[in-house]
Structures are given as C-alpha cells and as structure tokens.
Amino acid sequence: MAALVGALAGGLVPPLVERAGGTPPTVSWTSVLTLGFVAVVLFALAGTTWHTLHRRRERIDHQRAVNLLVLGKASALAGAAVAGAYLAFALSFANQTDVPLPRERLVHGLLAALGAAGVAGGGVALERSCRVPRGSNGDGTDGTPESDGTGRGAPPR
User: Fold this and answer.
1) Total-model pTM
2) How far is residue 142's CA from residue 96's CA, in Å, rounded to a whole number?
3) What end-to-end distance do the CA atoms of the chain give, in Å?
4) What SS3 class is residue 91?
5) For 112-146, how does the pLDDT look when each residue is reduced to its tens digit (9 = 90+)?
6) Alpha-carbon dihedral of residues 107, 120, 29, 86, nearest 10 degrees?
C-alpha cells in the first residue's frame, strides 16, 4: 500500500511541475548513494541482531529490541513508499530516452528506486530478526513448566 501511495505521488510530480511552467527535477547521485548506504546499514544491523538472538542465543535489552523493531517497521514502510515514488517518477520519462536529460532522470530514478527497495528489504529483515527464537520465553527457559533455564529441567519434587 505504501508503494502505491508513493507511486501515485511520484507519478504526479512531472505533469504537475510542467503544468506549473517548470521543469521536473533530476535525481542526484547523492540520493542514490544515500539510499544504498542506508540499505546496507539496515541489512548489517539485521544480520547482527539475528546472530545475537538466534545463533548465540543472547538476550538484548528490551528497549533496544523495541527500538530495532520500530526502526525496521519504519524503514520498510518508508522504503516502499520512496521506491514507488522514484519508480513512477522514472517511468514517466521512459518514452523520452532519446533526449539526454529525461534519460538521466530515468536511469537515476530507477537506481534510486532500487536503493529504496533495498531500504524496504533491510527494514523487513531487521523487523524479522527481532523475533524471539522459537522455544524461548525471554527468561532463559524454553517455555515449558519443567525448565529451569539450564536445559536439564527442574529438580524433581
């Protein structure tokens, strides 16, 4: 849904700017590189979080877990919206590739959409890496009444 809203907004930019007598903006390399960098950071953060929770079976602070989860969710939604906007913006110049400036808008817009899709993917990966491993209730036990957290079970009564 976020991608559709973004696509609607991005697709409306060129005709509205032209109707107002201006020229549509270009997509800078800074935007493309920044989105790519943010995507890499999100995937790296998702990997370290997953490794901490699922491989090493360590606990993380509750507030940090919530912050990571919110960052993942916000990144997924914002990345999808921005990807849709850049994709629609770029595709509005797809039939003008014989002229240099529209071709540049198309290429840079598509690359920015790819970077924003990476941000959305990194956000989803971070969100999923925050899931508590199956069989763990967060206090070191496996969730069964017999468990005392040592893996040997509780002493007999």
Assistant:
1) 0.79
2) 61
3) 55
4) helix
5) 999 999 999 999 999 999 988 776 655 555 444 44
6) 40
